[in-house]
Design goal:
two-stranded antiparallel sheet, alpha/beta, 386 residues, 8 strands, 12 helices
Length: 386
């Protein structure tokens, strides 16, 4: 007769905290928790979105139940995905003394099946497993986002609002020109100061006066365009005032240092600082990865090819760097970076300029980061004050 024994557990889970994941949506918050003394069972609770009081009440109940089962008080560790809710929930939790983490959802490993099951329940459990692996110290299990301070986050608004306003300005200008082109008019410039006077004397391609309703529509488009121009000036004044205040506080100011480089204007300097360079980076790889300019090789067996940059970073910073790289070639032709670009393009027979400019953008970002963070002057760069 065989003696029956309880099967030995291969893996023992010794929890040193109450782990909680927050799966957030516009209507519902799904709270998944794993507590000491509760075995391997994950508890799930649904709350109405935005119910912060209900969330803290639930966390308090989880802590009390855990104390009743184990006799000990355990801290709470939470995790949520970076997304539409921003960082306000993270700040609320930290204000109450709760350890909170915000994870980049794209860094979490998922099933590669073509049709994989996806529900809030499964996502909540996956977040818990990621959080526990992260707290155990497993390397490269995920990428945690560093929440900016409220002031750092608010400073971004200036550059982002100006970009939205300028895009809307281009839309109105194109609409006006498109309407006039349908009447054979190609020499009207909505950005000129005499745009109203010129509108009154416009004639169609067949020699008639501009139709009444079209003229009224264009006049209303000009009203919106002039409002946008005024708002852009207001945003730029706020930007300049912020730069002046920073210059008064910090000498030398990082933005002022950027403005000393020929080819970098006020808007570029503000975006470079507000969108990326205000952060602390340990090395150049972190800088390039934050901008989405890190390489993504594909190596498997005999296959060894490059897929291009990851684009898994700040898109505003990356676009600005691409634009700045073209301007850098024009204004800093004798710099080491420009010479590297020209030699690389010449070696390729004048081809692959677009891919090479992306490589230049990565090198330029690293050089600017070293210049702002450590004062390392970019080799061969011309300063405006010189």
């Amino acid at each position: 007769m065989f003696k029956t024994e309880k099967a030995a557990i291969a893996i023992h889970t010794n929890l040193g905290a109450i782990f909680v994941s927050l799966e957030l949506s516009r209507s519902t918050w799904l709270i998944t928790s794993l507590s000491p003394g509760n075995g391997e069972k994950m508890s799930k609770h649904a709350l109405k979105a935005g119910d912060v009081a209900g969330l803290f009440n639930l966390l308090s109940k989880l802590r009390d139940r855990c104390r009743a089962r184990t006799g000990d008080a355990y801290p709470i560790v939470t995790i949520q995905e970076a997304g539409l809710d921003g960082f306000w929930i993270h700040r609320v939790l930290e204000k109450e003394g709760i350890e909170s983490h915000v994870v980049d959802a794209a860094s979490i490993a998922t099933s590669r099946r073509q049709r994989r099951v996806k529900t809030d329940r499964i996502d909540g459990e996956a977040l818990l497993r990621v959080l526990m692996a992260y707290k155990r110290g497993e390397p490269r299990v995920c990428s945690m986002a560093r929440a900016p301070s409220p002031d750092e986050e608010d400073r971004r608004r200036i550059g982002r609002e100006r970009k939205a306003l300028t895009a809307e300005r281009v839309s109105h200008i194109n609409r006006i020109k498109g309407l006039l082109f349908s009447q054979g008019i190609t020499n009207y410039e909505p950005m000129n100061k005499d745009r109203r006077q010129q509108l009154e004397v416009l004639q169609t391609g067949d020699g008639h006066a501009l139709p009444t309703h079209m003229k009224a529509q264009i006049a209303r488009e000009l009203d919106r365009l002039e409002l946008l121009l005024e708002q852009i000036r207001t945003v730029e004044d706020e930007r300049d005032a912020l730069i002046a205040a920073q210059t008064a506080e910090m000498k030398p100011s990082p933005v002022t240092m950027l403005l000393e480089l020929k080819g970098i204007g006020t808007e570029f300097a503000n975006i470079l600082w507000a969108e990326g360079l205000f952060r602390h980076f340990d090395n150049r790889r972190q800088v390039a990865a934050y901008a989405g300019l890190a390489p993504t090789p594909w190596q498997s067996g005999t296959i060894d090819r490059e897929q291009g940059v990851s684009k898994a970073g700040n898109p505003r910073l990356r676009v600005t760097l691409i634009q700045l790289s073209w301007l850098w070639l024009r204004h800093q032709p004798d710099s080491a970076l420009s010479q590297w670009f020209n030699a690389r393009v010449h070696r390729n027979g004048g081809r692959m300029k677009k891919s090479t400019i992306v490589a230049l953008a990565r090198k330029l970002l690293v050089a600017i980061w070293k210049y702002v963070a450590s004062g390392v002057v970019i080799e061969g760069a011309i300063m405006k004050r010189a």
